[in-house]
Amino acid sequence: MYLSSIDRPHAAHPSRRRSLFHVSGNVFALGAVSLITDISSEMVTAVLPVYLMIGLHLSPAVYGVVDGTYTGATALLRLVGGYVADRTRRRKFIAGLGYGFSAVAKLGLPAAGNAVGVIGAVIAIDRTGKGLRTAPRDALITLSTPPQLYGRAFGVHRMMDTVGAFAGPLVALGILAATGQAYDAVFVASFCIAAFGVLVLVLFVRDRGGEQPSKGTVALSSLGGLLRIAPVRRLVLAACLAGMVTIGDGFVYLLLQRREDLSVGWFPLLAVGTNLSYLLLATPLGVLADKIGRQKVVLAGYTALMLVYLLLFGPFGGWPLLVVVLALYGLFYASTDGVLIALAGPVLPTGVRTTGIALIQTGQAMAYLVSSVLFGLAWTVWGPASAIRIAAVLVAVAVFAVALLLRGIPSTDADEEQPA
């Protein structure tokens, strides 16, 4: 549709050597960058909820705004990053800018002190970096992988990413224990690790800058063109709906901490439990998605999320509750994060693939911003038990709606199809 088959990297390089996991070296390099960066990011994420709500005594409503900002406030920059990366064909450079912004932002947290407004600004800068880097990175994964292996490639990448997410809270916990609960030490160490991730990107990730699209392929009008493609339009709607019923990790962990009366010192380990489940399941579920259908795996993930919400105020507690909830929460992420983008990859034309991925991610992030704010308000007005039960009902409704939207999404490359 936008490019001929000879322009597609997987068609142009049929003899590309692949690793034990049958993915390219570029995917592994991107996974290494994400692994290192997620150590840095999760060091901050693991302590931020307890730092803000217990250390700074923020209300759930205010925390909801901050948490929404952390994921969604700069979501439109995903579109900017995706469009510029497609237009210039410098996906590695745009991703590198994003990783650099996030690294520098870590130094702003200790400088912010107790000023909530400054903390919000620093978080916005950090998320600006994530907004710029995510779509170019995911586009590089698809451009380094044949379509039939997208699920596997994203599964391997997300597995490596989650190794970092698993290690990050443990590193933060160790630093807090060694420094007498000095949050500033966590933030400074996070910056150093993030800077190393940028260096790995520069040295080991290969761009596809030489593969230029046909003239006129990448223009502002291409965004409207993407939405005129029925499968892309349905994917964007499904991503928005899914984001609208997903509350932040911090809320889930705060509810667990309050229900089980866990000490503040153990709070970062809740993220470790989720990330361990995600780590173990990401690659197997990615491979399974390629075999049985990516739609089925995504829907199973949101069903697991509904069970998580129900169990937070269910009939039993203690360590069995912690194990089951964190395992299901990791299953949710492993079933949806990379698999949704793998589902999108084949229906997005190569010439505007980064823009298309950014469009889907932006819709989901903007919806998440609204969801986080509304959940914080619901917690404040009706209490945590009512708020999470309402969230569970909304997830159940969303599962049926997403199933209808994703039905019939093709698995062949969009460049091999004619316009709808």
UniProtKB/TrEMBL annotation:
Keyword Chloroplast attached:
no
- The regions listed as transmembrane in this protein's record are 20-41, 162-179, 185-205, 235-256, 262-285, 297-316, 322-344, 365-382, 388-406
What SUPFAM superfamilies does the entry give? MFS general substrate transporter
Pfam families, alphabetically?
MFS_1
From what superkingdom does this record's organism come? Bacteria
Q: Which UniProt keywords apply?
A: Membrane, Transmembrane, Transmembrane helix
- Keyword Chaperone annotated: no
PROSITE patterns of this UniProt entry?
Answer: MFS (PS50850)
Q: How does it sit in the membrane?
A: Multi-pass membrane protein
Q: Where in the cell is it found?
A: Cell membrane
Q: Where is the Major facilitator superfamily (MFS) profile domain?
A: 26-413
PANTHER family attached to this UniProt entry: C-METHYLTRANSFERASE (PTHR23518), MAJOR FACILITATOR SUPERFAMILY TRANSPORTER (PTHR23518:SF2)
Q: What protein am I looking at? A: Sugar phosphate permease
